[in-house]
Specification:
single chain; mainly alpha; Growth Hormone, Chain: A; about 80% helix
């Protein structure tokens, strides 16, 4: 284990790279926008409809694009200029949220508008996620990619801590409609940071035009489809990458739906208002900060990344099981903190392991399949929402936690190589 001085140096080192600083800030602002938007609109739908199912449906529309377009985003990460891709999709997100804000201020919002705007934001994220992650490896390679992803996770967790708290306070001080201005602001700041990124020549990516003989739309589609199929086969033949993706699927089906159920539990079980609901969600962000800081400092020297991935996942699910049946606000805050710590171990290592083990020419598509796995979250929202409606929100989260824990344990037993060292060229 490295000493504290070396750990501190490794935390700081990625920040010495200007491109990483810009990308890090962009990621943080994007997640701020996503989290604030989902928190605000979840409260809006809850107030308008009083329906747990319709609240969960926000998450469905937000993450469905990841399942639908994740592999396309991975393909684009391998074939086009990654910075250009980020600029385009982020601009679309800014434009859609500005239009929605204007409609909100004019009191012209209908429920289906809510689902449309979160779908557009989710679509943008699906196309850019693989590129954002791959750029970290472009900048640092295997040696510092764990620190870079952990610092990226730190920014994301800080955002998930900050955004719900700020959003809850704004709702209490202003109104739901008056608070929405913060959403396009976050996305605009993200776009501005992307404009500041400047790539060196050695990490420029070839364009799609270089991959085809002539501009033939059918040929383009065929080439894209063939590349995606080859990428899926590549991942399927790599046992450890496949196991990581399977765990990611189950975590998003059964663990992360808690995000949309927390507002319901906060109001109906813990009996708190929007501001304390925001701080409850923020506690998960604090836990994520703690986990990310540790991984940023010690991750590069720790070869057993699979162990962090599995143990982090199980810590999150066990804490969720206890949270599901807690009736104490203070205890719930502590458990949300542990959920965040576990989620950071899971989140940092899921992409780190895939990037280290995958070949350069397949890295984008492999990350795209990770995006698809993340995109299973809408199905989790639907399942959780249905069970919460039939039984109770607490029962649905408890059931999810038990099933998810069992599946993770079974996968970790069947793929014992996940417990071995994760290094380049290690095969399944």
């Amino acid at each position: 284990m490295p000493n504290l001085t070396n750990s501190s140096n490794k935390i700081i080192l990625p920040f010495k790279n200007r491109n990483f600083r810009c990308l890090w800030l962009s990621n943080m602002f994007t997640v701020n926008g996503q989290t604030a938007q989902m928190t605000l609109l979840a409260w809006f739908i809850l107030e308008e409809t009083n329906s747990s199912f319709l609240v969960a449906l926000i998450g469905t529309f937000s993450f469905a694009p990841s399942f639908m377009f994740g592999t396309l985003g991975g393909y684009l990460a391998d074939k086009v200029n990654r910075r250009t891709l980020l600029v385009i999709v982020q601009f679309v997100t800014v434009l859609s949220t500005v239009i929605f804000m204007i409609l909100f201020f004019q009191d012209l919002i209908e429920s289906w508008y809510v689902y449309m705007v979160v779908f557009i934001a989710g679509f943008s994220w699906a196309l850019e996620f693989s590129s954002r992650r791959a750029i970290n490896h472009d900048l640092f390679g295997d040696s510092l990619v764990t620190s870079a992803i952990a610092l990226d996770g730190f920014g994301m967790q800080f955002s998930r801590m900050l955004a719900p708290a700020v959003t809850g306070i704004l709702i209490s001080l202003l109104s739901i409609e008056g608070s929405y201005f913060i959403i396009p602001l976050f996305y605009f700041l993200s776009l501005f940071c992307i404009f500041l990124i400047k790539f060196d020549e050695n990490i420029k990516i070839k364009s799609i035009d270089d991959q085809i003989d002539s501009f033939n739309i059918l040929k383009v589609i065929k080439n894209i489809f063939n590349d995606i199929v080859l990428g899926v086969k590549y991942v399927n033949n790599h046992k450890r990458i496949k196991s990581v993706i399977l765990i990611t699927v189950f975590m998003n089906l059964l663990f992360y739906p808690y995000l949309q159920i927390v507002p319901v539990i906060a109001r109906d079980v813990l009996l708190v208002d929007a501001d304390l609901m925001g701080f409850l969600l923020a506690a998960a962000g604090v836990g994520g900060l703690i986990g990310s800081i540790f991984l940023a400092g010690f991750g590069p020297d720790y070869k057993f990344k699979g162990r962090i991935y599995i143990c982090g996942s199980l810590l999150g699910t066990f804490a969720l099981l206890l949270f599901a049946f807690s009736e104490s606000y203070i205890l719930s805050v502590i458990l949300m903190l542990l959920i965040g710590v576990g989620a950071s171990g899971f989140g940092v290592m899921q992409t780190t392991i895939v990037m280290i083990l995958s070949d350069k020419e397949r890295r984008g598509i492999a990350l795209g399949i990770v995006t698809v796995a993340i995109g299973c979250l809408p199905f989790g929202f639907l399942f959780t929402g249905i069970i919460a409606t039939i039984r109770t929100p607490s029962f649905s989260l408890g059931l999810n936690a038990v099933i998810c824990s069992i599946l993770i344990i079974l996968i970790s037993i069947s793929t014992r190589s996940l417990w071995y060292k994760i290094e380049r060229h290690n095969k399944s």
